[in-house]
Amino acid sequence: MKPENNHGIKRIIRATGFSMKGLRAAWVHEAAFRQELMLAIVMLPIAVLVDIATLEKLLLIFSLFIVLIVELLNSAIEAVVDRIGDEIHTLSGQAKDIASAAVFMSLALCGITWAVILGSRYL
Questions:
Q1: Is residue 5 very low, low, confident or very high in pLDDT (cuts 50, 70, 90)?
Q2: What CATH code is carried by the domain that includes residue 92?
Q3: Based on the structure, what is the number of domains in the chain?
Q4: Residue 74 resides in a domain
Q5: Is 5 domain-assigned?
Q6: Mean pLDDT, residues 52-59
Q7: What residues make up the domain containing 92?
Q8: Is the pLDDT of residue 2 over 90?
Q9: Which of 36, 71, 78, 87 is catalytic?
Q10: Can you tell me the mean pLDDT for 25-44?
Q11: Which EC number(s) does the record attach to this protein (predicted)?
Q12: Are 33 and 26 in contact (CB under 8 A)?
């Protein structure tokens, strides 16, 4: 049920709380999210400190965030599919596989971005 007075700053505060709750849930329940977040924490200072153009730094950082965002969406899809039932269903497996493929594609994009930008600078 939606709250009656969910406007303005109250809505923003509530939405922020829900977002923090979601990040906390992903950290606690999703090993892949923890691994990707730890990798991003290591790679973020590299992106900031490396001697490249600002736009290239932003591309490196954005690619890290894309991986995390797609992993969060993947985890949400998996949670919804698991909530529906325990029985094995072709469409449930397909939904999970497609969400996993999205994570794979985001990781590939991140890897290619880092390889092209840093490779052109240091190789």
A1: low
A2: 1.10.287.3610
A3: 1
A4: yes
A5: no
A6: 97
A7: 30-122
A8: no
A9: 71
A10: 98
A11: 2.7.1.107
A12: yes
Radius of gyration of the chain (CA): 18
Three-state helix/strand/coil letters over the chain? CCCCCCCHHHHHHHHHHHHHHHHHHHHHHCHHHHHHHHHHHHHHHHHHHCCCCHHHHHHHHHHHHHHHHHHHHHHHHHHHHHHHCCCCCHHHHHHHHHHHHHHHHHHHHHHHHHHHHHHHHHC
Asked if residue 72 lies in contact with residue 32, where contact means CB atoms within 8 angstroms, the answer is no
Q: Find where tokens 């709380």 sit.
A: 17
For the CA atoms of 80, 84, 86, 89, the dihedral, rounded to the nearest 10 degrees, stands at -90
Token match 């709250």: residue?
Answer: 3
Please choose, from the candidates 26, 50, 46, the residue with its C-alpha nearest in 3D space to the C-alpha of residue 36: 26
